[in-house]
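Before the break, one more example. Copy the sequence into your notebook; we will annotate it together after we see the structure.
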Amino acid sequence: MCALSEFCFNDCRFTATLVIAVTSMSEKTVYLMRGLPSCGKSFKAKQLATNGGIICETDEYFHTQTGEDPTKYNYRHELQQAACDWNFERFCRAVDEGVTPVIVDRGNSRSLESQRYVRYAVERGYRVELVEPETWWWQEIRVLLKYRRLTRPALYEWAEKLSEMSRETHRVPASTIRDWMDGWKWDLTVDDILNFEPEPEPEPEQAQQEEIASNADAESTAPAPIATDLIEPAEEPLQESPILKPGERSPFL
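Here is what the structure looks like once it is written out:
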C-alpha cells in the first residue's frame, strides 16, 4: 500500500517517478559569483562546476571572441555590451537545456544586467544563490567592506594590491576597484537584485531648468569672508586613521 507521505496514487511506481522528477527540478541551481577582482571568484566557480556544470563568464568573450590568441585577455571597451549579450545568450542556452549548476562569473550586483539573469533563471524553475570566494584575503576584505566608514584606508590599500594582482589577467585599475568598494552592498540578496528598479532620469527640459536655477543661486549667493583665526581645528579625518593594514587580522573577524 502506498504511504500518504508519498502522494498516495493508485500506482506507486508513478508516485516514485513523480517524487524523483520534483526533486530533480528543485535541485536546478544558478550561482551568481560575488567579489572583487583577484579575490578567487573564478577558482570558486570552477569548484562549483566540477559535477557537470557550466561557467558563464563575460570576460571569456575577450579571450575567445577578440584577438588572435585565446590565451590572452584582449579587452576592448567598445565591445563591453557585446560581451555582456554574448554571455547572457550562453547562459540562456544552458538554462533552456536544463544544465545544472550554471555559474555566472561576472560582477553581480543590484543592476539591470544581473536582474535579467535572475529573472530568466527563476522563471524557468531554477534556484538562484549568491556565492563569494573563500580565500583568506577576501574574508578580510568583505568585513572591511561591511565597516567601510571606518576601514576605508585599509580598503584603498587593498585596492592597490588587488590591482597589482590582476595585472597578469584583467588589469583592473585601482581607481575602478575603489569605486566598486565605495558602492559595495555587503548584505545583498537575490531578492534585492530581482526587485531592483533604477532611479528614473529627469526629463531633459527639467534637468536644464534645474541647472539654470542652480547656476543663478550660485551667482547670487556670494560666500561671506571667513575669519580663519576663529575656526577650530576639525577632527582628524577618518581616511587618515590607520585602522587596518593589508594582512593584519581584522578585529571584526
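The domain at 28-194 is CATH 3.40.50.300 (Rossmann fold). The mean pLDDT is 79. Try to locate both features in your own notes.
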